[in-house]
Amino acid sequence: MQRTLVIMVKEPRPGRVKTRLGREIGMVAAAWWFRHQTRSLIRRLRDPSWHIVLAVSPDQEGLKSRVWPADLPRAAQGRGDLGDRMARMLRGMPKGPVCLIGADIPGISRPHIARAFDALGHSQMVFGPAPDGGYWLVGAQRYTGLPAGLFRNVRWSSEHALADTLASIPDCRVSLLDQLCDVDTVADLKP
């Protein structure tokens, strides 16, 4: 079965991406950071062991964008909250193990992704926890459908996001990975 890594990206336009960071360093600087961070992340995570798909937003602009590598397939994220969009991406990928990440995780490496796919060999779902209570990765086996309650009643962008997500899938075999930080504020940029 094919392994698929979905990377969720937004067009790096000032005021439309990394706005919490932008309030601290300026919207142009935040968009610049995101553009370069995303390019670096995509370069680092290319590996023949998995197929990369970019989940783009906004849909039409992202599908036509010249910002992202032309050789990578793209899928529109579509409407809805983060859970709606992540579920759509997970469901829309080919059968087999699928992992989904955001593009704002500077510490992520190929071994992190390889461990996530390995965990899906014995777990139905895998999560990469973040110190703020959220998560930097969600993965699913995708040999069958996703758990029915997945992402239901999750308080996004809060310290409860991972706990709420786990509560939405009480009967799943779940693995947790290493904790990594995403970047939301200036404090998150400091090593």
Multimerization state: single chain
Strand content: 15-25%
**CATH fold category name:** Spore Coat Polysaccharide Biosynthesis Protein SpsA, Chain A
Q: Helix count?
A: 7
Q: Please tell me how large the radius of gyration is.
A: 16 Å
The helix content, as a percent range, equals 25-40%
* CATH architecture field: Alpha-Beta Complex
Bulk shape: globular
Description:
The mean pLDDT is 95. The chain has helices at 19-25, 27-45, 59-64, 82-92, 110-119, 161-167, 186-189; strands spanning 4-10, 51-57, 74-76, 98-102, 125-129, 135-140, 174-176. The chain is of the alpha/beta class and 191 residues long. The termini are far apart. The protein has a single domain, classed as Spore Coat Polysaccharide Biosynthesis Protein SpsA, Chain A, CATH 3.90.550.10. A 7-stranded mixed beta sheet has the order 3-2-1-4-6-5-7, sandwiched between helices. Helix 1 (19-25) packs across helix 2. Helix 3 (59-64) links the parallel strand 2 (51-57) and strand 3. Helix content is 34%, strand content 19%. The relative contact order is 0.18.
Write a brief caption for the model.
The chain is 34% helix and 19% strand. By secondary structure, the chain is an alpha/beta fold.
